[in-house]
Amino acid sequence: MKFIITFNFLILLMFYLFYPLKPIIVQNDLILDSTSVIMGGKINGLEFFYPFTIVRDLNDETVIRHELIHFKQMQDSLPIAYHLLYLKYYINNRMAGMDHNWAYLNICFELEAYAKENDKDYLHNRIPFSHFLYLR
Ligand SMILES: [Zn+2]
User: Fold this and answer.
1) Interatomic CA distance for residues 25 and 36, integer angstroms
2) pLDDT, tens digit, for every residue of 72-89?
3) What is the pTM of this model?
4) Nearest of 80, 68, 74 to residue 121 by alpha carbon
5) CA of 109 relative to ligand 1 center, distance in Å
6) Gap between the terminal Cα atoms of the chain
7) What's the CA-to-centroid distance between 13 and ligand 1, angstroms?
C-alpha cells in the first residue's frame, strides 16, 4: 500500500516536472560520437535527457523532425516510461531472434519516426499515442 502511494506520487511529480516542457534542440558532436561508440553505427540525433534533443546538424530538418516525433512520444507516455518501454520493445525484438540493427528499427517508436520523418505536417497533425499503430 505504501509502495503504491509512493509510486503514484512519483508519477504525478514526473508529470508536473516534465510534461509541459518545450523541446530544447542542442548541437553537440561529443555526446553523439560517444553514444555512437556505445550503440554501434553513426547516430545523427538523440533524445538525450528530457527535454534536450541533441543533433549533429541544426539545419537537418529530417533528423530534427525524427527526434521531435520521439519527443511527442515521450509526452504521450512520460519520459521515464518512454525509455523503459523503448528498452522493453528492444529486448522483446532481440528475444524474437532479431539482430541489434533490426531490433532497433522494429521498435514501434522508431517505426513511426522513420515512417513520418519526411512528412512536414506530421508534427502538427499527429494523434497522441500513434506509435501504437506501429506495434507488431
Ligand atoms: Zn529514432
Assistant:
1) 18
2) 999 888 888 898 999 999
3) 0.83
4) 68
5) 7
6) 35
7) 27
- Residue (of 38, 79, 83, 30) closest to 55 by Cα position: 30
Please give the distance, rounded to the nearest whole angstrom, from the Cα atom of residue 52 to the centre of ligand 1: 14
Angle at 108 between CA 113 and CA 78, to 5 degrees: 85
CA of 113 to the centre of ligand 1 (A): 6
CA of 35 from ligand 1 middle (Å) equals: 13
Distance CA 94, CA 118 (A): 28
State in Å: Cα 110 to ligand 1 middle: 5
Amino acid at 80: I
Residue in 118, 86, 122, 80 with CA at minimum distance from that of residue 104? 86
Residue with cell 507488431: 136
Q: pLDDT tens digits, residue range 106-116?
A: 999 999 999 99
